[in-house]
Amino acid sequence: xxxxxxxxxxxxxxxxxxxxxxxxxxxxxxxxxxxxxxxxxxxxxxxxxxxxxxxxxxxxxxxxxxxxxxxxxxxxxxxxxxxxxxxxxxxxxxxxxxxxxxxxxxxxxxxxxxxxxxxxxxxxxxxxxxxxxxxxxxxxxxxxxxxxxxxxxxxxxxxxxxxxxxxxxxxxxxxxxxxxxxxxxxxxxxxxxxxxxxxxxxxxxxxxx
Length: 209
Ligand code: TMP
Hints:
The chain is α/β, with parallel strands linked by helices. The protein has helices at about 15-25, 40-50, 60-80, 95-105, 110-115, 135-140, 155-170, 185-209, and strands at about 1-5, 30-35, 85-90, 125-130, 175-180. It contains eight helices and five strands; from the N terminus they run E-H-E-H-H-E-H-H-E-H-H-E-H.
């Protein structure tokens, strides 16, 4: 199974990645976590460029995210999926649609066009969209040091969030929105509910092989 986690910077995604991994591992699943941009030698160099460069054309930014993604797909994601492990990607294509398509206003169609160049053109079995009110996410973001993308303003992040909502609306079977500004126990129960569904689907798949 191929899963990803998404959400605005400051929406609380990182807190839940370990929980997802531990829950799956406690059910006998081997899980590999990947991070984008980065996760390969080339990818880490691209991450550095993307997050710390002074000026960059929006198209360059878009292409670099996909270049990093192509490397991690071939070097990490596909080999692990082939070996029967589950992969949990900390961001994948939906991030480019939301941040570059929506935030940078390059348009969803343009990002999807580049998506078709990926080999293979993977799609997640499930994506968790961690979500908090924009003001709360911005407040959390303002507490730490900011990279180039995080220095963008409220309007940028509002567009990112709205594009994520649009994706959720278009693909409700694949994208599950998880609200993070509520009791942790409720967030975790919701996650468990979806993870149990995935585990059942996986076990049925393995049994029929
Ligand atoms: P991270 O904070 O989750 O490590 O992500 C790094 C930053 O890169 C974050 O601000 C979101 C941004 N990003 C994009 O703009 N487009 C993408 O395709 C990805 C994967 C991340």
